[in-house]
TrEMBL record:
UniProt organism field: Chryseolinea lacunae
Entry-linked Gene3D superfamilies: Galactose-binding domain-like, Glycosidases, Golgi alpha-mannosidase II
Family: Belongs to the glycosyl hydrolase 51 family.
SMART domains: Alpha-L-AF_C
Keywords, in A-Z order: Glycoprotein, Hydrolase, Signal
EC nos: 3.2.1.55
Protein name listed in UniProt: non-reducing end alpha-L-arabinofuranosidase
Keyword Transit peptide applies: no
InterPro entries: Alpha-L-AF_C, ASD1_cat, CenC_carb-bd, GH, Glyco_hydro_b, Glycosyl_Hydrolase_51
Swiss-Prot/TrEMBL catalytic activity: Hydrolysis of terminal non-reducing alpha-L-arabinofuranoside residues in alpha-L-arabinosides
Length: 662
């Protein structure tokens, strides 16, 4: 949409609501002496789902794809001969996949490498759309191996880019007992699309498994941990919660492929990997190499939440597979294992170290509890079958853990018959928190800024669990994280903040996307094998989260909440800890608006206010790897004249004013 067309569309939107689109001077009154509802610490959070290669190939720093040969095609990602640099004598050796399911059901496949001559037998791994390597960085290589025949095997591991070796390490494998062999190296160059090669020499037969390569520079330098730059982007948001592991990933296409948290804990080599449900979900973005190694499991999710100061919000299967796919359900009389998973998870997170699941948590390295306060039952389910299962789960959870807040589902849409049914039923059942989702065009977000103004205050609290403005249409591969979408979300979020007595949690979705491996757009953070950047939507989320405040302050235009009059949207908060008034205002119009903020109250204020602005003249503007901060916060100061702050709000801008109270 061109700028002129966007202006006409917005003008039509507001004029259709009986609002003026050409006001030039506006007075907003901030009732600074009347703090209202408490803003929860969980108000602004993040939602992680393993979509768009967000886990394997993304936040999980493992660089080897199909490291344990457990894909449906066990050699996917691997090749025997990669270039003319390596011997093409096919008599030098061979590789077979051995199925040992009777011996090890969770990790049944190993690769058997036979070397027949004195020449090296070479296999290579392509990584996740290539292997990202940084010059002078340290890397840890490891492999599990068992020598089946021969005295010993020499293994040279190399990282190659454009025909040049940029890192190498070697180990000697001996003995039939399975052992983990490790070596480290320092990279001599940077490459976004390197490949790894394993050179086996020494006649004999060697079984290998869990071929792994990690940078040493992981988040908090944990071996086998998270990619540090991606986690830093999350930590910088100071989120109040993190919802995990999804999303539709929880449900599975079938119940057999649902997310089962108990299979994701323990030693990484003992975790049962599985196909990712987004592998073939979208015909326009097939990803046959998208699997879940569960190197990022529930222990790591809890640890991540603790690291970034967020409250954990795990979501569990309620015995219903995705209703958009198979719609398979577990019968009510077969629901006990699902319910027990929820009870055991709470014990895993919070139980003492002498409890069965608390002991496992302690054994993994975390004796202290994770302080779990919330648990989600189902993701995006709907209908009578969901309500039946929700009742069973909630009764069991509340009976044993009455203080745990249960998050329920209002379905996939923010209105309509399914939504109305779920909302009414959950209100009758006195649900704790209801999860509502919104994927719609920017105009919907502008129009719905007042969505919660008239919600029944006696009903459940609201979790705005998934929202993102769609520039083209929901599920369209052409969606962009453009400035108009981000601006509309900021307008919508002022309404969430204004209604903080009802809305206690909110998060954008999805969180991450690999530039070459995505299935869904738009997304909050984009990354490739070496770099990452936040979208304009990211900076909107970050500005709300890092400028949250503790209590709502009314901000009025003509004695009404500011939710579209003269194309303005606003909310305000008092921060009792920093003694600041925080005003957030969106000018959605295409002309600058001279605005006077009047602080109504008995306080005295600092001579200047801090001003933070997100703005771009082009509604289609986006951040990119080439211009990662084209749209990013700009800070300045503006005078405070007694109890008035006068500013010119740039067209299509989001502005925050922080006014210190003396």
């Amino acid at each position: 949409m061109k700028t002129t067309a966007m202006a006409l569309a917005l003008s039509a939107l507001f004029l259709s609501a009986g609002l003026s689109a050409d006001a030039q001077s506006t007075v907003l009154k901030v009732q600074a002496g009347q703090p209202k509802a408490e803003i929860q610490s969980t108000m602004w959070g993040i939602f992680f789902e393993d979509i768009n290669f967000a886990a394997d190939g993304g936040i999980y720093a493992e660089l080897i794809k199909n490291r344990s040969f457990e894909f449906s095609d066990p050699l996917m990602g691997w090749k025997q001969y990669e270039s003319d640099r390596f011997s093409r004598n096919k008599q030098s050796g061979s590789i077979l996949i051995i199925n040992r399911v009777q011996e090890n059901a969770t990790n049944p496949h190993v690769a058997r490498v036979s070397v027949n001559t004195d020449k090296a037998f070479v296999i290579s791994n392509e990584g996740f759309r290539g292997i990202g390597i940084k010059k002078d960085a340290q890397y840890d290589f490891s492999i599990w191996a068992s020598q089946q025949e021969g005295s010993e095997s020499k293994l040279l591991f190399e990282v190659n880019a454009q025909g040049k070796v940029i890192g190498q390490a070697s180990v000697t494998i001996s003995g039939k007992a399975w052992k983990k062999y490790t070596a480290s190296f320092k990279a001599t160059d940077t490459a976004a699309k390197a490949q790894a090669t394993l050179h086996f020499t020494g006649k004999g037969v060697t079984d290998i498994d869990m071929v792994s390569l990690f940078p040493q520079d992981t988040w908090k330098q944990r071996p086998g941990g998270f990619r540090s730059d991606l986690v830093q982007l999350l930590a910088d948001m100071k989120p109040g919660f993190i919802r995990f592991p999804g999303g539709c990933i929880v449900e599975g296409f079938h119940l057999s492929t649902r997310y089962q948290w108990k299979k994701t804990i323990g030693a990484p080599e003992e975790r049962e990997s599985m196909i990712n449900r987004w592998n073939t979900e979208f015909k326009h973005r097939l990803a046959p190499d998208y699997y879940q190694s569960f190197g990022v499991g529930f222990y790591e999710y809890f640890q991540l939440a603790e690291d970034i100061g967020a409250s954990p919000l795990p979501i569990l299967s309620c015995g219903m597979a995705c209703q958009f796919n198979s719609a398979e359900v577990a019968p009510l009389d077969a629901l006990d294992p699902y319910v027990q998973d929820a009870l055991d998870l709470i014990e895993f997170a919070n139980g003492p170290i002498d409890s069965p699941w608390g002991k496992i948590r302690a054994t993994m390295g975390h004796p202290a509890p994770f302080n779990l306060k919330f648990i989600g039952v189902g993701n995006e389910q709907w209908g009578e079958q969901y309500i039946e299962r929700y009742k069973i789960f909630t009764a069991a959870i509340k009976s044993k853990y009455p203080d745990i807040k249960v998050v329920s589902s209002a379905g996939p849409f923010p209105e309509g018959e399914l939504f109305a049914y779920a909302s009414n039923e959950l209100k009758t059942l006195h649900a704790d928190i209801v999860d509502e989702h919104y994927y719609n065009n920017p105009q919907w977000f502008f129009k719905n800024a007042g969505r919660y103004d008239n919600y029944d205050r006696s009903g459940p609290k609201i979790f705005a669990g998934e929202f993102a403005a769609q520039s083209v249409g929901t599920t369209s591969p052409e969606n962009k994280n453009n400035w108009l979408c981000a601006l509309s979300e900021a307008a919508f979020m002022t309404g969430l903040e204004r209604n903080a007595d009802m809305v206690t949690m909110a998060s954008y979705a999805p969180l991450f996307a690999h530039a070459e491996g995505w299935q869904w757009t738009p997304d909050l953070i984009w990354f490739d094998n070496l770099n990452a950047y936040g979208t304009p939507n990211y900076y909107v989320q970050k500005l709300f989260s890092t400028n949250k405040g503790t209590n709502v302050l009314p901000v009025l235009l003509n004695n009404q909440p500011v939710e579209g009059q003269q194309e303005l949207y606003a909310s305000a908060a008092w921060d009792k800890n920093t003694k600041e008034i925080i005003v957030k205002v969106v000018n959605a119009g295409t002309t600058a608006t001279k605005t006077e903020f009047v602080l109504e109250g008995s306080g005295k204020y600092a001579a200047t206010a801090k001003k933070i602005t997100l703005v771009n003249a082009d509604p289609n503007a986006v951040n990119s790897f080439e211009s990662p901060k084209l749209i990013a916060p700009q800070e300045s100061t503006t005078p405070v004249a007694g109890k008035k702050v006068s500013v010119s709000l740039a067209p299509q801008s989001f502005t925050i004013l922080k006014i210190q109270v003396k």
